[in-house]
Amino acid sequence: MPISRYKKVFHSLWKNKRALIGCFILLSVVMGAIGAAFISPYDPLKQDLTLRLKPPGWRQGNNIYWLGTDYLGRDVASRIIYGTRITLLVSIFALFIGAILGITVGLVSGYFGGKIDTMFMRLADIQLSFPFILLVIAIIAVLGPSTTNLILVLGITGWVIYARIVRSEVLSLREREFITAAKALGCSDFKIIFSHLLPNVGATCIVIATLEIARIILFESGLSFLGLGVQPPTPTWGSMLAEGRAYLFTSWWLATFPGIALMLTVLGINVVGDWLRDFFV
Questions:
Q1: 241 touches 225 (CB < 8 A)
Q2: What does the buried/exposed string (b/e) look like for 64-74 if buried means 16 or more CB atoms within 10 Å of the residue's CB?
Q3: Bridge partners (DSSP) listed for residue 59
Q4: CB–CB of 43/28 below 8 Å?
Q5: Which residues contact 133 (CB under 8 A, 6 or more apart)?
Q6: Could you tell me which of 35, 53, 240, 261 has the fewest CB atoms within 10 Å of its CB?
Q7: Measuring CA to CA, which residue among 89, 22, 59, 62 is closest to residue 235?
Q8: Which H, E and C letters describe the chain, residue by residue?
Q9: Is the dihedral of CA 143, 146, 149, 150 positive or negative?
Q10: pLDDT band at 65, cuts 50/70/90?
Q11: CATH 1.10.3720.10 applies to domain 3-43+75-280
Q12: pTM beyond 0.70, yes or no
């Protein structure tokens, strides 16, 4: 990207204060995930029943639990910080799987058309005919709950939106003069698709990805809440919400702080996604 392009991006971001706050939130989440071992004050898996359900800011000697402890005496703040790692890991890998599948299908389907286009679009229609959350729950129930299965399921079931939007753009792009010129010069279909069409749908794919990752984070948390996602004792925001549900009226901090972390992360992603949409469009 040329330097002038970088300047334009930073200038646009600086003018949009909401997007700037969203970027700050996302940067904080990413840095927390990367440096969890250094930032986290305690071991997120260490149990001490003598410290169970201590309220936020409770002190024991030189130790202080800023966000309190859970029903097993584990530090809530440490579990939230380490839960960021799992949430981002699952979401990013699932995003890449869905994006690669969907963009490839959209490019091929829109460029070649005909029976190939019909086949892929009917597959998309079949998948869209099932409620997404029920489809994911059914697949997880068959394969078994695990981090790997969760990533694969969220990734494979997320290709449709990329495929449909990329296909619609390719249908118009393939009739443009630069595609006709590439064909006249003897460029192969592979080169036309990935060297000429793909760069022209890149901005759209980036915007879709920012909105999709927020959706994936919510679904990951929802499945973990239901016990179909990442399994205990690994801390995740969804499982922490599920654990805190039983103590909502007596130990409100167990569900409140993971819920705030989830809300702020999704909010930050959506705000940045709106800015990217406005910037590219």
A1: yes
A2: ebebbbbeebb
A3: 64
A4: no
A5: 219, 222
A6: 35
A7: 89
A8: CCHHHHHHHHHHHHHCHHHHHHHHHHHHHHHHHHCHHHHCCCCCCCCCHHHCCCCCCEEECCEEECCCECCCCCEHHHHHHHHHHHHHHHHHHHHHHHHHHHHHHHHHHHHHCHHHHHHHHHHHHHHHCCCHHHHHHHHHHHHCCCHHHHHHHHHHCCCHHHHHHHHHHHHHHCCCHHHHHHHHCCCCHHHHHHHHHHHHHHHHHHHHHHHHHHHHHHHHHHHHHCCCCCCCCCCCHHHHHHHHHCCCCCCCHHHHHHHHHHHHHHHHHHHHHHHHHHHHC
A9: positive
A10: confident
A11: yes
A12: yes
Does residue 205 contact residue 166 with C-beta atoms inside 8 Å? yes
Q: Where are the domains of the chain?
A: 3-43+75-280
What confidence tens digit (pLDDT) does each residue in 236-257 have?
A: 898 899 889 888 888 899 999 9
Nearest C-alpha neighbor of 235 from the set 38, 23, 42: 42
Tokens 């005919």 label which residue?
A: 129
Tokens encoding 246: 């039983």
The residue type of 99 is A
